[in-house]
Structure formats: C-alpha cells, structure tokens
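Recap from last week: sequence in, structure out.
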Amino acid sequence: MLNISHGKLAKKIVDYLENEEICMNELQLKRVKIDIQKMIVDASCGLTYKAFFDGGATPNPGQMKIGGYIEEPNGKRIYEYSTSIGYGTNNEAEYSSLLYVCKELVFREIWQVRIHGDSSLVVNQVTGVYKAKHAKMVQLRDEVREVLKKVNQWEIVHIPRLQNKKADALT
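Predicted structure tokens:
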C-alpha cells in the first residue's frame, strides 16, 4: 500500500509523463491529470477524508477565533488549526474557518472529503438550501464554493455541536 495522498500520486504520475517526453500539450496534460485523480478517487473504495470546522466571536460581534482539523480515512488526525482572525460575527468566523480548512484540503491535494460543521446557516448556504442575503455572507460563501471546485468529491454536512467538540475546543 502506498503511503501517499491521492493528489500526490496523481502528481507523481503526471510528473513522470512530463519527464518521459510524451508529446502532450498543456491542456492534454491537465486533462490526463484530472482523469488520473478521478480514477484514483474511484479506486479508493469510498475511503473519504473528514474535515471539521468551527468558529466564533466573543462577544458577537467581537474577536473571532477559528479552529478545525482534517482526518485521514483511518481516523488519524493529520492537520489542525486554531487561530484568532480579527473582529467580526459568529457567522463570519464559521465561514472563515470553513474557508481555512478547504484551502488546506486543496494544499494537501485531498480530493475526496466529507466536511462537518455545526453551523446550519453556513452548511445550508454552501449547499444552496438557504440563500445568502448579506453581502459578506455571499462573498464568503462564494469563496468557499470557488475553493471547493478544486476538490473532486466533497460533501458538507451539519452536525450537532456535541459532535463537533474537538473543533470547538480549537476555537
């Protein structure tokens, strides 16, 4: 079994193709990389990474803190974050935390993930169940969606606060 993320494996294959001087233009190479990533995800037999996020402001509005983490399919925590990010509302902190973990997923080339958060507002706005009305929420939702376009398979789910204790402890 290879100890390498799906994205890194796909990159190694594409790097190999580039170094072997196979005649492909940049667009063809990009398509091959996407196809390889999709094949690896399909072959993973449902092995999905998990990401958890949380955020809050004290008072509301007030100083925002965000926290969360990423787990491998076997449950091993491979990344966590906890930081203060300035002044704002609880909802801005929740969105900022989600954006932070999504960017880390892309950086780590994790292409199949289930994202968990206890903010029903954020989860339902990202999925389109709720409409984002305030300009700041629209901006943050759009940023999250843009980053998630780079992830092959993702799902975001609302979980009760009690199931998000570990992320909450990081805020």
